Amino acid sequence: MSQNQQLYQYLYQTITSQIYNGTFIYGQEFPSQHEICLQYNVGITTVRKVMKILAEEGFIHTAQGQPSVVAYRISRENQAAFLVQSRDEIADAYQGLGLLMPVLYREGAKRCNASDLRYFEHILNSVSEQMELKEHYRLANAFFTEILRPLKNKLIIDLELDSENYLHVPYLSFPGVDNPFATTAVRTETWFKNAVYQIEQKQFDDFCDGASELYYASGQRVDSYLYALDKYTEGTPKKKEEFRWFRAKVHSELYARLAMTIVRRIIAGEFDNEPYLPSIPKLMEEYKITKNTARRVINLLNALGIARTIDKKGSVITLKGDIAFKSELNLMEPIIQERLSLFLDALQIVALTAHSCASSITFIPDNLGSSMEKRLRTASDSRMCPLSFQLLINAFIQLLPYHSLKNIFRQLDDLLIWGHYMQAIDKSFYPDFSNMAPAMDAVVAALKDQRSDALPDAFRNAFSLVYQNVCGVFSKYPINPTFLLCCFPDK
């Protein structure tokens, strides 16, 4: 599936879900194409195609020169049932994002300049008693989106906008069911005033704590609301569909994600006793993919130095610690530059949020530490290689208790495969990696000792060192100036 097809599917699924849950109701004016572009962070071509499909399927009515109108009828009871079926997922998302996003807000706030602060003051001055409730939340969304822009990371903006759309729960009026989103101009103004003051005074940790409390309180109110709605949905059929709301995967095509899946299987030792990786016919059968997609998977593994295909025999693994990058590669090609940029964006998110997210870990399987230690023995002494990094992030994702976080970090991990392109950079540009081995060993020690309290610092230190080392390479080998902005966004 191409990136464009994935984006169409994402936008279509999001909008139809919001029609089913009552965000868009029958007879209501549908947002303009421009408004949809801004709200969902997608291009006009994607919006036009999705709106055409929505019109053909009867979800909206369009007329030349007139605003589109929602044309789909659904009872309030069915709207409530659609909302209630997602209660557990929404609660999980609030908890997971409550660990992830406030840290990113804090890091964005650290990099805000005078122009950003003036914009925040403008938002503050826009609050008035005459505002409709939706305007309160529109201003809040604008504030949080803008505070992330100094990080210059498009994946972070995707995270913010996708979470806003997924966590938007419309209020359905039923007897005894209070509006969880009710607020006043005074409350909104007070919150903004306090947040802007904390940023101006560089009280970044206090600002982060306030954002965390906001996520927690909102999650509690929404959960109580959905619990109250549930009694009005008895006898109403509930359709359950998995909705992977974060869309990092639209930046990575199917063949690349499958290649990353093969890498994970290699790291897990699945092929240790096999002479060859699965053949193209086996990949086609196992993953229900075309021959062309399977061939692209194998070609990518070869191009990245992970595998080597022997004519008329099969593909053998070359991932034994340090990769000997054999293929000719032009790092200046636009597609490779784009992929390296996504790699840096994904790695930055992992490095910034590892400590906060790891603080939620409470259970460590008995054999995880010893298993990781055994696999690390095949890595280089410095531990700075694809093998050791994949072991590290696999353990991190496995231990996270929230599905939303697993979903996000697994998709980020899919993009980290492009870091293998760095194998084409001459080793003379690489910094001293000697500090990586103790950092990796600290993670292993915490896992073996079942010390979940030691994991936040251990994971943060290890991922931060990886990110710093990668940025160190690009500072000496500047193939694209924007990479330095990603590594050092405050410069």
Automatic annotation (TrEMBL):
Transmembrane segments: none
Gene3D superfamilies assigned: Winged helix-like DNA-binding domain superfamily/Winged helix DNA-binding domain (1.10.10.10)
Entry keyword annotation includes Transcription regulation: yes
BP GO terms, sorted: negative regulation of DNA-templated transcription
Keyword terms of this UniProt record: DNA-binding, Transcription, Transcription regulation
Alphabetical list of CDD domains matching this protein: WHTH_GntR
All copies of domain HTH gntR-type, residue ranges: 5-73, 252-320
Domain of life from the UniProt record: Bacteria
GO molecular function: DNA binding; DNA-binding transcription factor activity
Lipoprotein as UniProt keyword: no
Alphabetical list of PANTHER family matching this protein: MANNOSYL-D-GLYCERATE TRANSPORT/METABOLISM SYSTEM REPRESSOR MNGR-RELATED (PTHR44846), MANNOSYL-D-GLYCERATE TRANSPORT_METABOLISM SYSTEM REPRESSOR MNGR-RELATED (PTHR44846:SF1)
Protein name as annotated: DNA-binding FadR family transcriptional regulator
